[in-house]
Amino acid sequence: MSDNLTPLFRQYWEIKKQYPDVLLLFRLGDFYETFYDDATVTAQALDIVLTSRPGAGGERVPMAGIPFHAAERYVARLIAAGHRVAICDQVEDPRFAKGLVRRKVTRVVTPGTVLEDSMLEAKANNFLVAAVPSSKELADAAWGLAVADVSTGEFAVTEVHGPSPALRLLEELERLAPRELLLPERAASEPWLTPPTPSGWTVTPLPAEAFPRRSARETLLQHLGVQSLRGFGCEEMPLAIEAAAVILGYLHPDKVGMEAARHLRSLTTYSLDGFMVLDATARRNLEVTQALWDGGRARSLLGLIDCTATPMGARLLRRWLERPLLDPVAINARLDAVEQLAGDALRRGDVRERLQQCADLERLASRAATGTATPRDLGALRRSLALLPELRALVERGTVGLLQEVAARLELLSDLHEHLCRALVDEPPPLVRDGGIIRPGYSPALDDLRRAVAEGKEWIANLEATERERTGIKSLKVGYNAVFGYYIEVTRPNVPLVPANYHRKQTTANAERYITPELKEQEATVTGAEEKIQEMEAHLFAEVRDAMGREAARILAVATAVAELDALAAFAETSVRLGFCRPVVDDGPVIELRNGRHPVVEKFGEEPFVPNDGLLDDRDHRLLIITGPNMAGKSTYLRQVALIVLLAQAGCFVPADAAHIGIVDRIFTRVGAHDDLASGQSTFMVEMTETASILHHATERSLVILDEIGRGTSTYDGLSNAWAEAEHLQQIGCKTLFATHYHHLNDLADRLPGVKNYRVAVKEEGHHIVWLRKIVPGGTDRSYGIQVARLAGLPDEVIARAREVLTDLEAQSRNGGVPSSQARIQEKREKVQLTLFEPETDPVRDELRALDLT
C-alpha cells in the first residue's frame, strides 16, 4: 500500500494483514465499516449501498458499513452466505484517547464457530469438521475426522479406513452436514469434497503448518489435561488425533478472539462401523429429515415423531434417526426405557412438563465457557438448574436399566444454582450495559455505591421543595438532561429573586438554568457512583459467568442426560399417540411385519391407510418382486418397510401391530427419477450410478429397496438391466424389495431360489380400477397405465386412442410379429388410390367390369 496513507488506513491495513482471508468489520463510531475488496463483497452479500471515501493520492476507497447496534443481524447474513468475519472494535474510550483510538479484533466469526442464537438452528447441530488425509493420493487415502460443535461442547473423532475410504468419508460428511469443513489446501479444491448443494458446508482451506502431525498428540494431551489418550479411545488413531489438533488450533484465542475450545473437554471416539449406514440418497428417498416435495421438515419422519421438549433433546433425536444402532443390546435398552415411559402416562407427562421449562443447557454452558453469555442466559441457566431435583426424582421412581443410568447422571448442581441465586436479580436484563444485574447483598462494595446514589438522588429530589421554600419562587424546578446534567430552572419573571449562590448554566427561551456548589457536588457523587456501579456490575457479572464457564463440563454432562431423557420420552409419547408397537430386535436374519404402516402417509394422507404384512429372510424371501399399477401403493410399501426397520434400530416403537426386526447393516434405496444437470448426468445415468453403488456395497445384512429400475431407457434395455441387477442382488443375498412394471421379472421366481412374487391388489370395474392397497402373493402382467392416465385428466380421445394402440401392440407381441390390425388398416388406406400398374387380377377392377350398366 501507499506510504502516504492516513493514520486511520494505516491502522486498518496493519490489522487486515493479520486476517487476510476474512471480511474485516472495522468500528468507526456508530458503524462497522468495510473497505476495499471487503466492501464490495459485503455490499453485494447484504444488498447495501457501496460508497467511498477519499484515500491516499486522491483515490476513492470503496466503503460499506452496517450500524453497530444491528451488527449481529448483518453478521448472521454474512455467515449464512458462507463468509468469515473479523470484528474489529475500539478498545479504548474515545474521550480519553490520545490520537487515534486503539482498535483490535475481538472476535472472528465463521460458519463453524457461531454461538449466537440468532445464527443457529435450535434443533440442529452446528458442526465444525476437520478432515486429514494419510497421503497425497486423496482418493485412496485413509482419513482422520474430528467433529466439534462449539455451541454445544461436543467433540468427537474417528478414522476412515478400508475399501472406498473416499466414498465413506463423503457419506459421513453428508450425514454430519457440517457448517464448515477444514481441509488442507491441496484437498480443498477436490470436486468430490465440495458440498452436494449450494447451501451445504463452507470449505476453509488451511496451510500445511495448520496440520501439526508431529505435535498433534501433545496439543491434545495439553488441552485435555491428561497424560494418555487411552481413556478416550484414540491413542492408536494418529489421523484422528491430528484432525482434533487442527480444530483446537483453528479455535485458538489468538485466531478467534475468545476461548472457543475451553469447554471441549470430553472427547468421544466413534466408529463408522457402529451404526447403520444411511447415505444421502437413502435419507432423501426415505424422507428421514426432509420431505421430498418441499424440502421442509414438517412432513418428514423426523417432523412426525419429534415431540421433544428441549432443543438439545431434538438434536439428539435427530442424530438417533440418522445413525440407527447395530447392537441389539443397546437397541433393546432404549426400547426398555421407551416401554417404561409409554406405560406410565402420568409420570411421562410430569417429566415432559419439567423438560418444557428447561432451556438449552448445552448452548448456555458453551456461551458461559466462551465468555459470550448474557445476564439473561445465566438467568435461564438458573431456572433450568432449579428443575433438576424434581426431574431426577421422577426418573428414579420405579425405573430400571437405561432410565436409571440417566437418572444417575442427572447431577443436581446445587452449588451452581445457589451461586446464581445469590448473584443475580430475579429478572436479569438482556445485556450487561443495561445494568441492574447483581442482587443486593451479593457485594458489600456495590451496595455502598448504590446507597450513595440513592442518597444523592434523594437529596436532589428534595432540593426542589427546599429551594422553593427558601427563595419564595413557586415555579422553581429541578431538572436533568444528558448534556448539562442537573440544574435549577427559574422562569424569567422570577430571575430577580434568584439567590447569590446560584450560578447561571444555560439560558432558554422562557427561563434561566442554574447550578449551585452543593448541587454540583451531589451530581458528581451520583454520576461518579453510577459509573462505578456500571463497571463493578460488569466485573461481578463476568466473575459469575466465568465461574459457570469453569463448570461447563459438569453442566454439559447433565445436559447430555437431559437430552437423552427428552429423546426417550419423545419416542414414548409418539408411540402412544400414533399407536406404535414394540418391535422384537435381534441378530437374526428375519424381518417380519404384521399390519405395518407408513407413519407419515398414515398421518397426512387423505385416504384411510391400508396396512400390510411383510416378510424378508435369508432363505425363501430374500428378493420380493412387487408388481402392480401406478399409484397403487408399491412405493409406499417399500418405504414403510425401510422406515420401520430404521425406527426399530433407532430404539423407537414402530407403526405395526407386530414387528420382528433382524439387524440391518445398511439401507439402500433407488427410488424415483431425477437428473443432475449441474454435473451433466441424465435421469438414467443418475439411476445407474445409484444402482452401481448398491451392487458394489450391499451385503447379506443389507436392506435394499428398488423402485422402477430401468425406466429411463428403452423397454428392452431397461428390462435387461433390471433382470441382471435382480439376479446379482439375489446372489449377494441381501434382503430386497424390487417394485417394477416389468412383469417379465416374475419369471425369476421360477428360476432362482429365494425370489417371491407379490402384487398390489386392484379391483377392476370395466375400464375403471379401484386400488385396494393390499400386497398379496403372486405377480401381475398388467400395469394399468391407461387407467392412471384417465385419472390424471387426459382427454377422452387420447385415452381411447391409447387403448387401440395398446391392443395392437399386445396382439403383435402375442403373434410373434405378425402385422396387427393397425397395420392392416394402414394397408387398406394405402390401396384407396389406384396406381398405373395394377395387376390384372385386381378384385376391384373385376367387380367393376362385371356391373350391368344398361
Q: What class would the helix/strand composition place it in?
A: alpha/beta
* Shape assignment: elongated
Task: Let me know the number of strands.
Answer: 26
**Helical content, roughly?**
40-55%
Number of helices: 30
Strand arrangement in the largest pleated sheet:
3-4-2-1-5-6
Give the averaged pLDDT, no decimals: 88
Largest sheet data: 6 strands, mixed
- Beta-strand percentage range: 15-25%
Report on the structure:
This protein is an alpha/beta fold and 854 residues long. Helix content is 43%, strand content 18%. The protein has a six-stranded mixed β-sheet with strand order 3-4-2-1-5-6, with helices on both faces. The chain has a six-stranded mixed β-sheet with strand order 11-10-7-8-9-12. The protein has a six-stranded mixed β-sheet with strand order 22-23-24-20-25-26, sandwiched between helices. Helix 13 crosses helix 21. The longest helix has 34 residues.
Could you give a short description of this structure?
The chain is of the alpha/beta class and 854 residues long. Helices cover 43% and strands 18% of the residues. The strands form five sheets. A six-stranded mixed sheet has the order 3-4-2-1-5-6, with helices on both faces.
Quick tags:
854 residues, six-stranded mixed sheet, 26 strands, alpha/beta
